[in-house]
Automatic annotation (TrEMBL):
It comes from the Bacteria. This is Uncharacterized protein. It comes from Modicisalibacter luteus.
Length: 49
């Protein structure tokens, strides 16, 4: 049984922040000559402090 169903939509601000973050990450990878192919492995190795 479902009591309620919610649909969430991202705000324009959130979309802009996500795009800017992606652009910064891509620029950092390009500057450091890191392959995008190994992005997930690099992220999995980060500490969760």
């Amino acid at each position: 049984m479902t009591d309620a169903t919610f649909t969430l939509y991202p705000s324009d601000t959130l979309v802009a922040e996500v795009k800017a973050s992606s652009k910064r990450q891509g620029h950092a990878e390009q500057t450091l000559k890191l392959s995008r192919m190994y992005r997930k492995e690099r992220q999995m190795g980060l500490p969760l402090d």
